[in-house]
């Protein structure tokens, strides 16, 4: 079996190390929060609208590098991810990269923990990270 490794080389012939992506700055007073549902809400049939709010920053689609902007991520039944890595994209980390501020969500019956985390143009948490208090909803 043959393995190939790619190595970037500068114009002077020296190897170039890949630099980790830097976190995008966020104002210290930025806040992301739930407009709906409220902590302790009881949801019937599992389908509901999540409405997301943001203060002291703007909402912009992924890939938009404007200062003090980001897009929403809804964390479902999971803890905050590493703040130095891109936010995962799976059933527990829902991305709203088009700049949505509300979304229709469906959850199975039971108790669910929800939390919002703002991501930058590359789906990375800001510095400082902008996240909501977790809330709990019950689906019947």
TrEMBL record:
Record keywords, A-Z: Signal
Signal peptide region: 1-18
Chain ranges of the DUF4399 domain: 50-140
Protein name: ATPase
Organism: Massilia psychrophila
